[in-house]
Specification:
Layout lengths: L1 H16 L8 E5 L5 H10 L3 E6 L5 H10 L10 E5 L12 E7 L8 H11 E11 L26 H9 L6 H13 L5 H10 L3 E9 L13 H5 E9 L2
Parallel strand pairs: 1-2, 1-4, 2-3, 4-5
Antiparallel strand pairs: 5-7, 6-7
Bound molecules: S-adenosylmethionine.
S-adenosylmethionine binds next to strand 2.
Length: 243
């Protein structure tokens, strides 16, 4: 219910705080995953069209089942569809969308600058983009493996091979989930907040508002070689316009 209610509401509210209503507009979600958040945005804001893009085409049968399980009306899909995107390519015309958002996806994207350029390309010049990224790789929960390793920054204090070995040998969670999370951990892009700032500019965006999510850091000797900014900034929410 988190994504249907809370994450979707945040998307709608962040745009609203900039004086933007998504109602009756053309909206894209980049890295949409299972799509439950898109159903939330659809029901809360009533965009004319909402397209969820992902490398793996969203499974709408699974989404319907998930919606039913969560007590969400699964018959109300008018305007929502899903498309498969390429690694650095969004299958859409230039300027096809009024607004775009991306939630908890950018640390998984192997070529972030290319995807940012694509988002810039598919937005109308008067459009806006909301990006939420959590967690950055070098931050406390950056490994995404908190179910197995609850300690903050655990992944910066041991070799990656050691972590993968321990993870894959664990029977704490199902074998499929463990394998999937092991693969995710090894493919995170490790972008930092400074690199993201440079990438946004390189892609042609003007960032209008930034909110950093920070937390205290317990500095061990192993963490001494990392930047305090990277250790302490867990995530970011920003609003940008195409220029
Ligand atoms: C952790 S999931 C987040 C999904 C969803 N936004 C959410 O919050 O539940 C990250 C998603 O990004 C997708 N992804 C990774 N690289 C991508 C790319 N280049 N273009 C589009 N989606 C991508 C993955 O397939 C995955 O579904």
């Amino acid at each position: 219910m988190d994504h249907y209610e809370e994450a979707a509401s945040q998307v709608v509210d962040v745009f609203a705080s900039e004086g933007i209503s998504l109602t009756d507009r053309l909206v894209a979600d980049v890295g949409c995953g299972d799509g439950i958040m898109d159903l939330g945005v659809l029901h809360k804001a009533r965009p004319r069209t909402l397209v969820g893009f992902d490398l793996n085409l969203t499974d709408t049968e699974y989404l319907r089942r998930q919606a039913r399980q969560e007590g969400v009306d699964d018959s109300d899909w008018a305007g929502l569809r899903f498309e498969r995107s390429g690694v650095g390519r969004l299958p859409a015309e230039d300027g096809a969308f009024d607004f775009a958002f991306s939630w908890s996806a950018f640390e998984h994207i192997s070529r972030p600058i290319e995807v940012l350029r694509e988002i810039h390309r598919i937005l109308s010049p008067e459009g806006a983009f909301f990006l939420q990224l959590w967690p950055f790789y070098f931050s406390a929960k950056g490994s995404h493996l908190w179910e197995w390793f609850p300690e903050d920054h655990h992944h910066l204090q041991r070799a990656e091979s050691e972590i993968v070995g321990e993870l894959e040998g664990s029977d704490l969670k199902s074998a499929d989930w463990t394998k999937m999370m092991s693969r995710e951990f090894q493919h995170l892009n490790r972008i930092t907040v400074e690199e993201l700032q440079r990438s946004m500019l390189a892609a042609g965006f003007a960032v209008r508002r930034v909110e950093l999510m920070t937390s205290p850091v317990r500095l061990t000797p192993e963490l001494g070689r990392y930047s305090w900014l990277d250790l302490g900034i867990g995530g970011i929410k920003l609003i940008a316009t195409p220029g």
